[in-house]
Amino acid sequence: MTPDPTGRRETRDGRAVVVLTRTFDVPVEDVWAAITVSERLERWIGTWTGDPAAGTVQFRMNAEGEDVQAEPFTIHRCEPPHVLAVSSRAADGEPAFELLLELTEADGTTTLTFSQPMSDPELAADVGPGWEYYLDRLMAAEAGDDVAAIDFNDYHPAQSDHYRQLFA
């Protein structure tokens, strides 16, 4: 089954950004823990090691195969339980991914707004479906569902054209 893509394009600070939103029927602190506590992250995307107070952690994705190495992620903003802004580094030292996760709560429902600057349509064709996949894994993990039942092949390449067209 191919889920419908939910990502949209916005312009923020003059930059094109892909934005995805998910809602949870739990308090904001629960979703915050799911995106910041290594043991909770492990259920849907990966783990981190290191000291976040130092401003950098080593993050390793766990659904990308056994050969994936941990990568340094810089923490730019951490305002519990509402804002987490991080970036990874490419081999040349330039930012590879700049990720912003914003959480709001209203009447017991928490909304996660995930965004990433994006300018290359071909990169968007790969990255957009990837974030749909991971965010749906987060939803499954938080609902107590089987995260392994979320199949990346249902997202990519089926959703690629949606993201390629958003950033063309």
From TrEMBL:
<dbReference type="InterPro" id="IPR013538">
    <property type="entry name" value="ASHA1/2-like_C"/>
</dbReference>
<protein>
    <submittedName>
        <fullName>ATPase</fullName>
    </submittedName>
</protein>
<dbReference type="Pfam" id="PF08327">
    <property type="entry name" value="AHSA1"/>
</dbReference>
<dbReference type="InterPro" id="IPR023393">
    <property type="entry name" value="START-like_dom_sf"/>
</dbReference>
<comment type="similarity">
    <text>Belongs to the AHA1 family.</text>
</comment>
<feature type="domain" description="Activator of Hsp90 ATPase homologue 1/2-like C-terminal">
    <location>
        <begin position="25"/>
        <end position="140"/>
    </location>
</feature>
